[in-house]
Design goal:
Elements: H1 4-13, H2 27-41, H3 49-58, H4 70-79, H5 90-101, H6 114-122, H7 128-142, H8 148-163, H9 178-191, H10 194-204
Helix pairs in contact: 2-3, 2-6, 3-5, 3-6, 4-5, 5-6, 7-8, 8-9
């Protein structure tokens, strides 16, 4: 059973931070990651569900400050949150901080602890439409002067680099997840032909 006071604190004080994030890292995404994290945690003996929930809840909370360093910023927000000392030991907080620091699929090293592996795996999207919307919204926000064709090409290149046959996110799944494997097959079919990808991308982001 999870600590209801902890859940209440996170709901009231951490979840509102996500109102500042882009749509790809908003509260809907966080609840998605929480749900998947708890599912993966069921496969681990003696796992601390309060820690799993907390890591998933904080993992993107600093994204609006600096997307490129958001894992470090989010980890520091957790580490500096004095309220968490009511629920966790210093060592547990350190473990959760490391888990958030290690959650990005683009990092070259493997997460240092099981909580990092859980949130990293849970953070993988399994919906093609969501991927295409996130890549469009991110590029539109950060490169407002880019043409639609430039955005499409850049998104296609990014998705291949991340989810293609040798993509950096394809081997960063630390739990069996048939939904993710199905997603990888579907998205690779989609990106194999640029014109098909372009048509689908425009249709989704019209």
């Amino acid at each position: 059973m999870m600590n209801e006071d902890l859940i209440k604190y996170i709901n009231e004080h951490i979840f509102p931070l996500y109102d500042k994030n882009d749509k790809g890292h908003n509260i809907e995404h966080i609840k998605y990651v929480i749900k998947r994290s708890l599912k993966f945690a069921d496969a681990i003996e003696d796992i601390n569900y309060d820690m799993v929930y907390t890591v998933a809840s904080y993992h993107d909370c600093g994204h609006n400050i600096d997307p490129k360093k958001h894992e470090e910023i989010s980890a520091n927000i957790l580490n500096n949150d004095k309220e968490l000392k009511k629920f966790f030991t210093i060592e547990q907080i350190k473990t959760m901080k490391e888990a958030i620091e290690d959650h990005r699929a683009s990092l070259e090293y493997e997460p240092r602890n099981i909580y990092g592996k859980i949130v990293s795996s849970a953070d993988r999207n399994i919906d093609i439409k969501t991927i295409m919307k996130r890549t469009y919204e991110y590029r539109k926000k950060n490169n407002p002067n880019s043409s639609l064709e430039d955005i499409i090409l850049d998104s296609w290149t990014h998705i291949i680099r991340k989810y293609g046959q040798d993509g950096y996110a394809t081997e960063k799944m630390y739990f069996k997840d048939e939904e993710y494997y199905t997603f990888l097959n579907e998205i690779n079919e989609n990106i194999s032909d640029y014109q098909i990808f372009r048509e689908n991308y425009i249709k989704i982001n019209n």
